[in-house]
Amino acid sequence: MVKAGVMSGPGEKIVIEEFEEPMVEAGGIVLKTIYSEICGTDVHLHHGRLSDVPYPIIPGHVSVGTIEETGGKLKDIDGNELKKGDLISFYDVHEICNECWFCLVAKATTRCPHRKVYGITYSSNEGLLGGWSELIYLKPGVKIMPLGQDIEPEDFISGGCGLLTSFHAVERSGMKLGDEVVIQGTGPVGLFAIAWARSAGAKKIIAVGSPTHRLEAAGAMGADDIINIEGLDSEERVEEVRKRTHGRGADIVIECSGNPQAVYEGVKMTRDAGNYLIVGQYTDAGDISMNPHYDLNKKHINLFGCWGFDFSHFYKAVKMFTRISNDYPFKNLISKTYSLDEANERLRAVENFEVIKAVIKPN
Ligand SMILES: [Zn+2]
Ligand SMILES: [Zn+2]
């Protein structure tokens, strides 16, 4: 039997349940979980703030593990054969249809209405389709990426979905060599956005966030300048950014905070004709007011929203990560590793911002 942590509904305690070992179909993979993440998404799931969640679920959407069994001979996207024991991660989004208007015309697969996400929109009644489990069943067609010899599982999972989401955000922001960049928010998405912005050739990176231990991490990830939002009001935060950017504001500002107020400030932190990208507003945290004349039209600003990541971001982020994983103390971002049984404590720790990244080690 296989043990997994099950969230039966919003607000319910996570309980450990036993499942049958998965039967591998042709093209399927059984993964022995090394690590899965506990991220803000899991807190939102526990608060019932995401729509269309078929509780009960096994949470845990980004995970790493070793191949236990494959349904026939399988290859990765580069044509390399997959073997038992290979260290891999997988693209948590599955069943993108490649037939709908969003897939084919808009070419925006992150908005495909048929997409399903491991650990979020699969029910535990459908099998081991989440990472808080000793084994994960990868259905036929789930896209995997070998992590190879160059990536340690601790480094990869220290970012988890944040590593991948932030890669998409930096790419979509239109960042160019020599840009001055502000990253709002110093959780996992913000911290990895700093590292990717460095890779993308930012000349100066200003991290805006709190609390102190996260700001220290922002420095370790490559931020040149740090603004602690605590003790500053909205105008003062904007002023601090302007002081550091020739009075103009930054070329690129990326919001990774989850607080709507950050959007109000972030637009003002962006220079005229600069780019502002919002990736942190993953659930509805409320409204803000803006002045469309000053903040948008006259400012000639480029405003982007950014939802999830597609396979290209997953692929490129993993390949790039092999280049940079030794350059930063990524694994130090893991504040605590929890066992399967400690589900309720780990959710609380993430909810209360006690940890930068919490991971689960089911085996
Ligand atoms: Zn589609
Ligand atoms: Zn996540």
Task: Quickly describe the structure.
The chain is of the alpha/beta class.
Report on the structure:
There is one protein chain. The chain is built from eleven helices and 17 strands. It is of the alpha/beta class and 363 residues long. It has two domains: 2-152 and 325-360, Alpha-Beta Complex (Quinone Oxidoreductase, Chain A, domain 1), CATH 3.90.180; 163-305, NAD(P)-binding Rossmann-like Domain (Rossmann fold), CATH 3.40.50. Strands 3, 4, 5, 8, 9, 16 and 17 form a seven-stranded mixed sheet that branches. Strands 12-11-10-13-14-15 form a six-stranded parallel sheet, sandwiched between helices. Helix 1 packs across helix 11. The longest helix is centred in the C-terminal third of the chain and has 14 residues, at 311-324. The model has no long low-confidence stretch (mean pLDDT 96). One zinc ion binds next to helix 2.
Give the SSE order as H and E letters.
EEEHEEEHEEEHHEHEHEHEHEHEHEHE
Helix content: 25-40%
Regions with pLDDT < 50 over 5+ consecutive residues?
none
Under the CATH scheme, which class of the largest domain? Answer: Alpha Beta
Task: Please state the second-level CATH architecture of the largest domain.
Answer: Alpha-Beta Complex
Q: By helix and strand content, what is the structural category?
A: alpha/beta
How many domains make up the 3D coordinates?
2
Q: What is the CATH third-level topology name of the largest domain?
A: Quinone Oxidoreductase, Chain A, domain 1
Largest sheet: 7 strands, mixed
How many helical stretches?
Answer: 11
Q: For the CA atoms, what is the radius of gyration?
A: 20 Å
> Could you give the count of β-strands?
17
Mean pLDDT: 96
Measured distance between first and last alpha carbons: 13 Å
Q: Which ligands occur here?
A: zinc ion
The CATH superfamily of the largest domain is identified as Medium-chain alcohol dehydrogenases, catalytic domain
Report the β-strand fraction as a percent range.
15-25%
